[in-house]
Design a protein that fits this description.
The protein is of the alpha+beta class. The chain has a single domain, classed as PSTPO5379-like, CATH 3.40.1640.10. Helices cover 18% and strands 32% of the residues. The chain has three helices and eight strands, in the order H-E-H-E-E-E-E-H-E-E-E. Strand 3 (88-92) and strand 4 (95-100) form a beta hairpin. The longest helix is centred in the first third of the chain and has 13 residues, at 42-54. The chain is globular, with a radius of gyration of 14 Å. The two termini are 23 Å apart.
Length: 148
């Protein structure tokens, strides 16, 4: 394996998808955009999109998936948002319930994925990924295909 900083975004995602990498992605695929991921039901997606558009410095939008699609078509068309994050944390009733490396079993046809630029203020806090029966939170970033 190449040094993590020398990996291409596709190589980094492949490593994560195969569960050979379960650490934060900071420092991976240097020279490429890292993103935070938020996943919301379609019924909430428009309001979140407006929030991001009105707050572009803290929530810069890199890509938005179609409802039900885990593939970010503009930034990483070979990616799968259900498997390409090193760890997902699932919270139920505000408590950490489990950590997963694959959220395929949670994915639904009405979910919309948002890739947001990994700006410093967001790196200090968890982004909340909302599901009706629990909350997923992630701290790590997502390697995209776009060069910086």
């Amino acid at each position: 394996m190449n040094a993590p900083s020398l990996l291409s975004p596709a190589e980094a995602r492949k490593l994560i998808r195969s569960q050979a990498w379960d650490k934060p992605t900071a420092g991976m695929a240097n020279g490429y955009i890292q993103a935070n991921l938020a996943i919301l039901p379609k019924e909430m997606a428009f309001e979140f999109l407006l929030f991001c558009q009105r707050n572009p410095k803290s929530c810069p939008i890199i890509d938005v998936t179609e409802p039900g699609s885990p593939i970010p078509p503009l930034s990483a068309p070979d990616a799968d948002l259900r498997t390409d994050i090193p760890k997902y944390r699932i919270y139920r009733n505000g408590e950490l319930a489990e950590e997963l490396t694959d959220i395929s079993s949670y994915w639904r046809d009405d979910l919309v994925g948002f890739l947001l630029g990994a700006v410093l203020p967001l790196r200090k806090h968890c982004l909340i990924i909302i599901f009706p029966f629990g909350i997923l939170r992630k701290i790590v970033t997502y390697p995209c295909i776009k060069p910086i």
